[in-house]
Amino acid sequence: DGGITQSPKYLFRKEGQNVTLSCEQNLNHDAMYWYRQDPGQGLRLIYYSQIVNDFQKGDIAEGYSVSREKKESFPLTVTSAQKNPTAFYLCASSIEQDYSNQPQHFGDGTRLSIL
Amino acid sequence: KQEVTQIPAALSVPEGENLVLNCSFTDSAIYNLQWFRQDPGKGLTSLLLIQSSQREQTSGRLNASLDKSSGRSTLYIAASQPGDSATYLCAVRPGDYKLSFGAGTTVTVRA
Fold first, then answer.
1. Do B99 and A104 touch (CB under 8 A)?
2. Is the confidence at residue A2, as pLDDT, over 80?
3. Chain A nearest CA to B77, separation (Å)
4. pLDDT grade for A40, boundaries at 50, 70 and 90
5. Between the CA of residue A50 and those of A27, A96, B14, B31, what are the distances in Å?
């Protein structure tokens, strides 16, 4: 079945440690996104990518980094510079980004906590 | 800056009652509006997408309306069932890439 796979489902980070969240899609979508969800708040955009080898910062990119070496994959690294990383992280994809009326499709998320 | 508000934050209804969920946004210059469903600990499932030129969209028991001029959308769920219990989020898309999300309405349907 086509879809978006995020792993791991749960992740724990120690102080000063970088961790990487995986996102893989087999929908042949061009655009991919990373969102952060905190309790009682709407989703906030961290990074997005329209095509391979290109990505742009969203609203809350500080302390995060991404890469887009393959169309199917868009991993997110939470660096030690992100002082409040505890949140639910959601990856999404869509057919195209610009002026599209196609919906975004989401993975099942990764919950990151601090040890 | 686009602000999206969903009131109430939580709603509890008996089974069989119709659900009415509200979404308001501050900037009427939107490209489309989406309604999503989120189950606990899960990702978002797209329910309906309304283009800016449309007034409503329907899918089964779900109907979503859009009034751009007043900055409002309403999601109606007919004859609610316990399986409809979830958090419902709306998101608006302006002319660029970014979706602006509301914080959601958590619905509980009592059997």
1. yes
2. no
3. 20
4. confident
5. 14, 7, 44, 18
Q: How does DSSP assign A70-108, residue by residue?
A: BTTB--EEE-TT-S---EEEEEEEES-STT--PPPEE--
Structure tokens belonging to residue B89: 């989020």
- Chain B residue numbers with beta carbons less than 8 Å from the beta carbon of A97 are 97
Q: Are A13 and A78 in contact (CB under 8 A)?
A: yes
Residues of A in contact with B25 (CB under 8 A): none
As a whole number, the mean pLDDT across chain A is 92
Mutation for B interface: A101, A102, A110, most B CBs within 10 A: A101
Report long-range pairs for B44-52 (Cβ below 8 Å, ≥24 apart).
Answer: B44/A43, B44/A90, B44/A92, B44/A104, B44/A106, B44/B89, B45/A106, B46/A103, B46/A104, B46/A105, B46/A106, B47/B75, B47/B88, B48/B75, B49/A101, B49/A102, B49/A103, B51/A101
| Helical residues (DSSP H) of B11-95, grouped into ranges | none
